[in-house]
UniProtKB/TrEMBL annotation, chain A:
Record bears the keyword Signal: yes
InterPro entries named among the record's database cross-references: FMN-bd
Domain annotation FMN-binding: ranges: 77-154
Record field: compositional bias (Low complexity): 43-71
Name of this protein: FMN-binding protein
Region described as Disordered: 32-73
Keywords: Signal
GO cellular component: membrane
Signal sequence range: 1-25
Molecular function GO terms recorded: FMN binding
Upper classification of the organism: Bacteria, Bacillati, Actinomycetota, Actinomycetes, Propionibacteriales
The UniProt record lists the keyword NADP: no
Length: 156, 257
């Protein structure tokens, strides 16, 4: 029962969604992915170090221990998500989304270039690291008090 | 790998003007952000959007589109952008299988209203002077739909790439961000009803769309990203099949409402 609860919690906190466009991979993606994956990893560790959350392999290199973790496939509002990360010397060096959803069922939309949908708490904590905001079209009236307005104010 | 947060942030400047009833934010980043050429290029970008608004506004009685609607002028008498908008509207309707339309209900009839494509088109055109700035990466955001661009000398990835972390609003709580999308070049358009209620029209059902959630599209131009975001939001499974088949340079995702 405890495991089921934790499972549900990690589903809530580790929403990861896909994206695949040539400009959407780069250094910053790795950073953003790391944040999401780190969180996923933390969630997995919450399960008490059992293998219920992840399966992993590890080995040693000159740069420190390298380990690969594969998260369980998790249901999200977008569909099933499965993530694999590589940790070397305590830092995530690689992440890969093995299984990603598309709400219309068009799996062909998705390729290996994944973009994370960060969980809300993480994003809010990191809102200072968002450069611009895209959302349902807002008018000049709706702009006041918007996230974009706050970002603009910080730069003006 | 060095996390972005510990790297020294490149110089950054921002401008905001209200055009087309929308806040238009232009941000520039990079080594060239304080070059003398930046200010005039940004002014030219805003001027392009304002000029498009004068031609296409459905709020100003004197705009070419309103005079055309009232039959005061012929298409041939309008700014050349107007016949081009008619052509683009027809192309968008055809490409999306009718899920996007420039014929919208007003005063009990369907009237030509290219507003849904003019914003993206205007922002695309506004980026032209900004692309000529050496060492500058920029983002133009018009009411939640945006274009990121960079001088051709700037790389798409690697340590010298200027990456913009685009936060996608949570349609359930617009004070929060539900997703982040790293972009070095390209447009991001999001369609939904969270900001303005049921303002999107479904031509197939001939009614305004009341569903919740949002659809985000990422791709080369804001004109087509915005057209597809609207079409996918109001459309059906057939629209999505068309999108996957006919717009391979674009990608989309939904957020639940």
């Amino acid at each position: 029962m405890r495991r089921i609860v934790l499972w549900a919690m990690s589903t809530l906190t580790a929403l990861v969604l896909l994206f695949s466009y040539q400009t959407s991979h780069g250094t910053s993606q790795s950073t953003a992915t790391s944040s999401a994956i780190q969180h996923l990893n933390d969630s997995s560790q919450t399960t008490g170090g059992s293998s219920s959350g992840t399966s992993g392999t590890s080995g040693s290199t000159a740069g420190g221990t390298t380990a690969t973790y594969t998260g369980d496939s998790q249901m999200t509002p977008y569909g099933p998500v499965q993530v694999q990360i590589t940790v070397k010397g305590g830092q995530i060096t690689r992440s890969e989304v093995l299984q990603v959803p598309w709400s219309g069922g068009h799996d062909q939309m998705i390729n290996s270039h994944a973009v994370p949908i960060l969980n809300q708490e993480t994003v809010q904590a990191q809102s200072s690291s968002i450069d611009m905001v895209s959302g349902a079209t807002y008018t000049s009236q709706g702009y006041i008090g918007s996230l974009q307005s706050a970002i603009d104010q910080a730069q003006l | 790998m060095i996390p972005a947060s510990t790297a020294v942030a490149p110089p950054r400047r921002a401008w905001v003007e209200h055009v087309m009833g929308l806040p238009v934010s232009i941000h520039v980043r990079g080594a060239g952000a304080y070059d003398d050429r930046v200010e005039p290029a940004v002014a030219a970008a805003f001027a392009t959007v304002r000029a498009m608004d004068r031609v296409f506004s459905t709020w100003q009685d004197g705009s070419d589109v309103m005079r055309l609607r009232r039959g005061e002028v012929d298409l041939a008498d309008c700014d050349p952008l107007v016949p081009e908008s008619v052509r683009l509207g027809a192309e968008a309707a055809r490409t999306t299988g009718g899920a996007f339309t420039t014929l919208l209900p007003a005063d009990g009839e369907l009237l030509f209203d290219p507003t849904g494509l003019v914003k993206g088109w205007a922002v695309d055109r506004a980026t032209v002077p900004l692309l000529e700035l050496p060492g500058v990466s920029f983002c133009v955001n018009a009411g939640g739909d945006l274009v990121v661009g960079a001088h051709p000398d700037l790389p798409d990835d690697g340590p010298d790439a200027v990456v913009w972390r685009i936060g996608i609003e949570d349609p359930r709580d617009r004070t929060r961000v539900a997703a982040t999308l790293p972009v070095t070049r390209g447009a991001v358009a999001t369609s939904g009803t969270a900001a303005r209620g049921a303002h999107l029209y479904d031509p197939a059902a001939d009614r305004m769309v009341a569903r919740s959630g949002s659809t985000t599209v990422h791709g080369p131009t804001l004109l087509w990203a915005d057209v597809w975001a609207t079409a996918l939001f109001v459309g059906d499974a057939g629209t999505r099949e068309r999108f996957v088949r006919d717009a391979p340079a674009y990608r989309a995702f939904d957020l639940p409402g």
